[in-house]
Structures are given as C-alpha cells and as structure tokens.
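Anyone else keep sequences and structure tokens together like this?

Example one:
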Amino acid sequence: MGLKRWIRHGWHAMGADGRWLDGAARERLRARIACSEAGHRGEIRLCIERALPATALRAGCPPRQRAAQLFGELGVWDTEERCGVLVYLLLAERAIEVVADRGITRVVPPSEWETLVGALSAQLRAREREAGLLAAIDTLDTLLRRHFPATAPTNPNELPDEPVLR
C-alpha cells in the first residue's frame, strides 16, 4: 500500500466533523431522510467517513468493502423488507458508494445507482456538499416510492435518520 494513501488518510483523520458538514446541514439532511421515509417502506442511511481506520488501511480495504462493512455495522441489512440503502462517502479517497439490500437490488438496476453517484460526485466537486447530499436523498426517495410505496398510514422507522460522521 502506498505512502500517499496513508498520508491522505492521516491528513483527513485530523479533520473535524463540522468542518466538512456543519450541524445545521446535518439536521437538514436528517429531516429530509425522515420526510422521505414517511412516504415509502425503505430505510436510508448516510455515512460520511473522513478516513479509513488504521486496521482497514493496513488491510488495503477498498472503499466498496468498507461501505459493505458499515452496511452491516449500521444495521442497514436488518430491515423487515430488506429495503435499506446506504450512501457512503470516504472523503480521503473522494469515493462514493451506494450499497442497497436485496429487496432493492432486485428491482433497481445498477444504472440508477451510477446516475445517483455521478450526480452526487459532480455536486461535491463543485463544493455543493449539502445540495448534493439532499439531491441524492431525493433521488433515493423517488426510487423507493416507486418500488416500495408506503402501504399504511404510518411507516415504522427502523433505523436512525441522522447522518453518521466518522
């Protein structure tokens, strides 16, 4: 594993959560996720990680593998209808991964995820962090409402709505 990767992750690890996304923006993201989930049976989690932990770096963990690991750790896989989705950002590598549970991958083609990642990536490059994340949530909302519409007046919230910042 390259020294540059270690330095990049070390540099990002020293950052503060509020520097990349302040508390007010995190609250607006939480509210958008909560509002979205009221209209469908899916569960959305957002995880933003500044840098990989040293153990993952030592193991040469790629962003996709880390996203899959967090998918499990955050319990996204443990929803009633297997319709959880994780949007994962690894800031040190400028990586975006979307991991969806089985129920979703059966009905949503990979091209939909690629479109979401491309749009989010463009907005992040333009330094439109909050707008890009809100748009990603809106895209997920559209997909989940199409394939997993709410069937009862109240939809149980199976997972926390707050973005996870590490």
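And example two:
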Amino acid sequence: MERAEQISEVAEQVLMELTQRNYEKICEYYNANKDAIVSDFYDAINRLITLTKEHQNSFCKKAVQYVAVSYLLSSTITKSYEFQLSLMSEQYFLDPIESCIYWSPHWLFTDVDKDWNMLFSRVRKEIIRLHPYELDRIWRSYICSFYYGLTALFVAEHIKAAAISGGLEDLRLAKEVSFIYGGIMNQFVQLDGLRTEKENEVFSHKDGSEI
C-alpha cells in the first residue's frame, strides 16, 4: 500500500470518531445556547444590511440580488474560521461596490485545535516520520465536509428570517433575491429565495438621474 493511502486510511478512521463525538457535543451546546447563538447571527446580518443601505444611498450600489455566506479556506490557516457575509448585485462577486462583513461562529469551532492534535498524534503512531503537510489535504477536507457543512445547516435555517428581520426589504432589491452558501469566488448552492415587487420601481440619484 502506498504511503499516502496508509495515511488516508488511518486518518479517516480518526476523523470518523471525531465527527461523531463533536457532532453530539455541538448539538448539545447549540440547544443550550440557541438564543444567544441565533441573536449573534441576526446582529451580524443587521450590520450587513445597515452597511448596504449606506452604500445604496451614498455610492449608488445597485439592487441586491444575492445574499451570500462564503467560507474562507484561508481561515483554516489563520485559524480565524471566518465567513464573509455579502449582499451583491446581479454582478455577483464582480459587484464593484463591495458590501460585506466578516462573521465567525466560534461556538462551532471550539474543538478544532483539539481535532488537529488528535489527528496528528494518532496517525503518527501508525505512520513513521509523519510530517504535518502530509495531512493537509485530509484536514481541509474534514473542515469543509464537517464544520462548514454544519455551518451550512445553521445558515440555511436562519438566513432568510435574519435578513428580513434586519430590514432587507427596505433595500433596493432585484425581482428575485437568492440566499446562497459556498466558498468565496467558488461554486454556491442556493438555500432559499425571496420574490419581491420591486422590479418595476425606479430609483434616482439626488440630481434626478435614474439608478
């Protein structure tokens, strides 16, 4: 068996155990602290909408078509585990007026460092002269599939209600608004949608010209 296959086989067994343990622990913590956790997310979305309103009023940002939650793979290196929350026009990530903030669900990532230490320690017992970089691909895959997967479930449950509560409908919106989740500048999945009655509205600059 090739070395990479041996590493993968041992690591996958360790990560299966960690996944089961962490899932139960995270669910227990979430159920005990749900109000505070959800409130924090609502506050973040409210800040984003307030920022976007300023951008539409002062910088003529176009109608919002996408409410996006993007995980940042670079945050697995910095260990910040941040997500970018964005309101984007029909131009998607090419929207020239960037309306975004950063949010981290720290309650989800409490045991990430412990997971890494456990993974490296257990695999090193089976694989001689193991180097951390040999686990990089497996580790990133675990973060994406487990932690970012759980975040997706949380976001899917709360993003639309949080946006509406935070005043999304007070912004200039496209005919249809999509709530999306995925890697920044990468493939997204649509979590929800909102049809509006704003496609026929005309908004103007202060000088009278149409936006």
